[in-house]
What we know:
single chain; globular; 3 helices; alpha+beta
Amino acid sequence: MAVPLILAINPGSTSTKIALFDGEKERISHEISHPITELGKYTNNLEQWEFRLNTVIDSLRTWDVPVKSLSAVIGRGGPLKPMEGGVYRLNDALLKELNS
């Protein structure tokens, strides 16, 4: 059985930390700094998603990791109402909550 390839994403105010795991073993990690001049173009965090997504994809390309090879992508944070800690599958209800 193949070991799952997992991308973990931790967005911060001026950086995005990412790590790639082979199962539970960290393969590589990186902190992507975002210049204030770039972030200042956006009025809120949700507007930054495409910009930050592209920086993460660029890192995966640098690591020679195709997006389709990922078994899972996990992240933390976001403008959600308080909820119990744990892992949630992205679905239409969660997307609706994020965009409201």
